[in-house]
Amino acid sequence: MRNRGFWKSFEMFESLSGDALDAVADAARPRRWAPGEVLFQRGDPGDWLVAIEDGRIRVSLVTQAGKELVLRHAEAGEMLGEIALFDRQPRSADATAVGPVTGHVLSRRDFDRLAAQDPAFYEAALTRLSTMLRATTLQLESIALYQLRARVARFLLITLEQLHGADIPEGAGLSLGLSQGELAAVLGATRPKVNKVLQDFRDDGLILDDAGAWRCDIKGLRAEAGGDA
Questions:
Q1: Are the beta carbons of 172 and 216 closer than 8 angstroms?
Q2: What are the extents of the domains in the chain?
Q3: What's the sign of the alpha-carbon dihedral 200, 226, 140, 177?
Q4: Does CATH number 3.40.50.150 belong to domain 147-225?
Q5: pLDDT in tens, 161-196
Q6: Fewer CB within 10 Å, N or C, the chain?
Q7: What is the rounded CA–CA span in Å between residue 196 and residue 83?
């Protein structure tokens, strides 16, 4: 079933024509994954991407010691697996359904076929990869160059930007879906230190607990983040 609106909501496809969006919708196939089901593992062939319609997917790596390092959670309205589709390399991480997940799968073969018919697909892919590279650079910069309080603020802002766009509304809500231990691993810190920073942020009014999510003082977080965050 064609659904231009669904595909146009993804940055990678938002600039495509109506006919091109219809072609994507026709080529994609709906999929469902049960809670705990593995979509793919590190090293698997990267021959499809998924546009998430509903649910949450955990992206992680397993260390040599057998511990899972959670890199991020991908949610409804996000795309996953496109890197391997473009560089034709194996998957670089594991992806597991946190709860029931529904999505639409676009294979590399279909993407290549569509791109051969319309070069706008390659332009869209370059735009998407540039956005991902920028986000990765900002996250690495946050870990390498800033004190923990600023790193936490920058991580929250980067995540909020992924959810709301560059113009984050004041008081925007955020549900990370990460434990404090997982957040600490991403930020290169210990859990007690991250816990203290988060409590300090609560005391300072930068985050407000609200029904399982946080309401964020965007101006205050930007001041804490420093730089160009």
A1: yes
A2: 4-142, 147-225
A3: positive
A4: no
A5: 877 777 898 988 888 766 778 788 778 788 999 999
A6: N
A7: 35
